[in-house]
Amino acid sequence: MTWSPDLLIIVTLTFLLAGTVKGVIGMALPTVSLGILAATLGLKEAIVLMLVPSFVTNVWQGVIGGNFTMLIQRLWGLLAAILLGTWFGAEALTMTDTSILEALLGVTLIGYGIFGLLTPELPTMKRRERWLSPIVGGATGVLAGLTGSTVLPVVPYLQTLGMSRDAFIQAMGICFTTAALGIGIGLTGRSLVPPDLGVLSAIGVLPALVGMMVGRVIRVRLSEQRFKKVFFFSVVVLGAYIVARAYIL
Prior knowledge:
Blueprint: H1 5-25, H2 29-40, H3 43-63, H4 68-89, H5 99-118, H6 129-147, H7 154-159, H8 165-189, H9 195-203, H10 205-219, H11 224-247
């Protein structure tokens, strides 16, 4: 892909917005950036561009918080399955026509947005955690490899494990970091990371970090609950647009 002023503007504004959302609610940088970039540039390009900003920002979220060692010991089966699943899922990105994967991404975003709007009461899964974690991790990894989206089903699953708020946010960072690492390994191993897009992905780290700082300022002045409703509704609309773009537009 040839760099152009329009491309640089799209990437910069996308990660600035995605970082701002993450600064406000503590998550969703990959979701926002992937959704916008897939809707404007295409799925393969979006996944590559998302990798470095997602990895860097989620490493910070995953390491800071005081629960890192405990979470690694508790979630190692989930994390290992995410890594393995992304490797197999990324094989689908070798296809020339990825319209079905773009539609799958759109459906995933719609599902995630509806889940966020409804906030259903989830049963506790602590007693089933040992055998359920690898299953959820594998499903998350495969879906991440196919679409780049790392939120389902791992985020709802983490909500069922009875963690404190701080541990939950840190666990999401660890899982998202693992997924980004797995996607990067899967794409690089299949020669699907063009050097120019890799460099542009690294450039996206700066606006993402600036956006996170802006988001933290907004968070103290804005109702987080109201912001989340607007965010999840926007995710549903974006997902619907991606599905329509894949098969109609």
